[in-house]
Amino acid sequence: MTLDSYFQFMKWAFILWTSGVIVLLILFLKKYTFGNWTPDNPNPYHGETLGMPRGFFRSVLTLSLLFVVVLLQIGYIRFDIEEIQVKDMMTAFQMMLAFYFGSKVMHHLASTDKIKTKAIAENIKVSSEAETAQKADFEKEGSVG
To answer: What are the extents of the domains in the chain?
Structure first.
């Protein structure tokens, strides 16, 4: 495979991928955004972007970037393309992965932290109520303590 044939392959691969993404977007728009929704049967994704399922655009962008990175990596290995050009795409892909998984981890940590904070607040409330009940055992207020 020559370098020119590789670039032709890359061009057609990008055209095919872009066409597939556009067709998928049109199908999802037709089904979710402009679907036959009624008040009895509302769109369950009404509050999301364009009324589509949650994470649709994020997944399309992630898969598109993955597709480009894989094609560029193949070209880099096969034809010794300059490393700087491919390195930038790899860095972008790594940052996207770090952001995606980092935000998911922080979401789970924050929800766990809320549960722990609620449990601690309930323990403090129970212990303060118990202390109040102990103080109420005395007949005179000056007898406490």
So the answer is: 3-81, 98-137
Per-residue pLDDT of the chain (145 residues; tens, 9 = 90+): 677 777 888 888 889 999 999 999 999 889 888 888 888 888 888 888 888 888 888 888 888 888 887 887 777 777 766 665 667 777 877 787 777 777 666 666 676 666 777 777 777 777 776 666 555 555 666 655 5
Report the distance separating Cα 76 and Cα 6, nearest Å.
11
Contact 51, 33 (CB under 8 A): yes
CA distance 91 to 73: 12
| Residue 33 neighbours by CB under 8 Å, 6+ apart | 50, 51, 52
Give the Cβ contact number of residue 58 at 10 Å: 12
